[in-house]
Amino acid sequence: MAPIRNTRVLFNSVPQGYPVPGETTVVDHSQTLDLDAVDLAGGKVLAKTLSISIDPYLRGKMRSPEKKTYNQPFEIGKPLYSHAVVKVLRSENPKYKAGDYVYGVFDWAEYQVFSEGLDARVLPPDSGIPWSVYVGVAGMPGKTAYYGWKEIAKAKKGETIYVSTAAGPVGSVVVQLAKAEGLKVIASAGQESKLQFLRDLGADVVFNYKTTSVEKVLEEHGPVDIFWDHVGGSTTNTVLAHMNTFGRVVVIGSISSYNTPQAEPIANFPHILYKRLTVRGLIVTDHEKEYRDAFYATIPGQIARGEIKYTETIVRSLDEAPQLLLDVQKGDNTGKAVVILADD
Ligand SMILES: NC(=O)c1ccc[n+]([C@@H]2O[C@H](COP(=O)([O-])OP(=O)(O)OC[C@H]3O[C@@H](n4cnc5c(N)ncnc54)[C@H](OP(=O)(O)O)[C@@H]3O)[C@@H](O)[C@H]2O)c1
């Protein structure tokens, strides 16, 4: 077979502020692959990429290597990578066979050659949900909601939860878990279509944080027993003052500071003492061993039966991936941001 193009998205330079498509990330069409001739000696696998996840945390990996945090930075000149679903074309690795659908962390490239596959898992071929969903509510973001719910939320029927960034793949699963367990749900997002989705999920109080003050909403509908925090900064500061005694703050994200030099200060920190709050951060990868099997035994089936709902913002080419990466940072995506390169 003649060599074919293998389009990739490369990390080109560290952004100052928001990522800039074509500058901080570049789409590269120069690589070619002969799919029949790629050498797989030593247990390698050749796979075609089906769906790639575009996540808010990827901005944090677009940094210079001397800045240390919980994850590794992307390497300049190398492809970006994130959770994805790929289909195995050829394999010399006993763990994978041709035709397998594999979820794991993969390059932003049309084709992949890998050995182990970071966080890799062979997916059932007939689960009844699209592959893209395995990088959304049935993948890392859904796990974040499920693991945090089990590990930290300690929800009791009748309690009140406030979920910020509630319409995304993490927040929307939290909203649905909370409604299923009989909580009163206050949910915010930044666009009307997202607010409608939240109403459809049954959230009790839905508001646009860009046009309605969090303070006012919580004065009327609080106090809050569980704050599911995706945003940080002034939102977190406000919510701390509206927590109930012995409340739980589940710190999952801090997107208000992902594109700024530093996070806003939290002046209401003393409320953690006054209200005897539990404030705990969660990184999803820390809890795979405890909750992964229960997650896969529960959530994909609920999605297939329509018991857990989701929305997606889809692009169908890697050429559009850098813009979608920016859109996620700015809130211009309306659902789980995903690049679908092929359905099968
Ligand atoms: N700890 C972990 O292991 C883990 C794992 C996965 C995700 N996360 C975090 O969870 C959060 C949600 O992730 P997701 O995948 O569900 O994201 P998402 O909803 O698909 O996309 C991010 C959303 O953040 C909102 N946003 C952007 N800037 C904001 C700001 N300044 N203030 C308030 N909201 C802002 C936007 O929605 P609006 O229209 O509502 O503004 C945007 O659409 C993120 O903070 C992410 O980093 C953490």
TrEMBL record:
Q: Which SUPFAM superfamilies match?
A: GroES-like (SSF50129), NAD(P)-binding Rossmann-fold domains (SSF51735)
A Pfam cross-reference name: ADH_zinc_N
InterPro entries attached to this UniProt entry: ADH-like_C, ADH_N_2, ER, GroES-like_sf, MDR_fam, NAD(P)-bd_dom_sf
What is the residue range of the signal peptide feature? none
Is the Oxidoreductase keyword given for this protein? yes
The Enoyl reductase (ER) domain, residue ranges:
25-339
Respond yes or no to whether keyword Coiled coil is given for this record: no
Species for this entry: Auricularia subglabra (strain TFB-10046 / SS5) (White-rot fungus)
Chain segments annotated as transmembrane: none
The GO terms this record gives for MF are:
oxidoreductase activity, acting on the CH-CH group of donors, NAD or NADP as acceptor
Q: What's the protein here called?
A: Alcohol dehydrogenase
Keywords on record: Oxidoreductase
